[in-house]
Amino acid sequence: MTVPIRVLVCDDQMLIRTGLVTIIDAQPDLEVAGQCGDGRAAVELAGRLRPDVVVMDIRMPVLDGLEATRLLAGAGVEHPVKVLVVTTFNLDEYVYEALRGGASGFLLKDAPPDRLLHGIRTVASGAALLDPEVTRQLVGRYAARIRPAAGGAPQDVPLTPRELEVLRLIADGLSNGEIAAALVISQETVKTFVSRILSKLGLRDRVQAVVYAYRHGLVT
């Protein structure tokens, strides 16, 4: 038997939290390790339970999901936890802050259950963590807010021309399959390029790669 993915659910609305717990627990490969209704409790429970993934709401009492995400997965955290942030369209101004705070990805609250489950499994595996359409709609919309890092310029990026090309396509929201079609290469080759990019830049996942590309002026 494969060890199930352990999930901590954090949402201050009991009805939504109960629904999430029910959906997750019904899956043979997933297991709800715990649940809570505020960010402070999420940080404390995550430290004690060590879940594989935290499903995190943004607007909550005591400590909001953005700050809780920084404490769980942000820069300098010794044992970061993978965080999947859930949000709604009228809260999308927080999405970039969630990603910058260390979130491994996000979903919209009106997403169907199968997308939630896919998101949890994807985040847990460390694979592609952003839905391409969501990347285009949200990360792209807030690109103007992302200032290039000090001294950061495209020529300073330690990537080959081909790797830069792949990074730009990731930042444009293309999936591995779409990148493979655009560059006329195999998906396995794309995966190899993605792995090299993350390794060279010291990034954890595709989310961070998207933010990196915007901050270094590689996309406009």
TrEMBL record:
GO terms for molecular function: DNA binding. Residues 152-217 form the HTH luxR-type domain. GO terms for biological process: phosphorelay signal transduction system; regulation of DNA-templated transcription. The modification 4-aspartylphosphate is found at D57. Residues 6-124 form the Response regulatory domain. Keywords: DNA-binding, Phosphoprotein, Transcription, Transcription regulation. The keyword DNA-binding applies. Gene3D superfamilies: 3.40.50.2300. InterPro entries: CheY-like_superfamily, NreC/VraR/RcsB-like_REC, Sig_transdc_resp-reg_C-effctor, Sig_transdc_resp-reg_receiver, Tscrpt_reg_LuxR_C, WalR-like. This is LuxR family two component transcriptional regulator. It comes from Streptomyces sparsogenes DSM 40356.
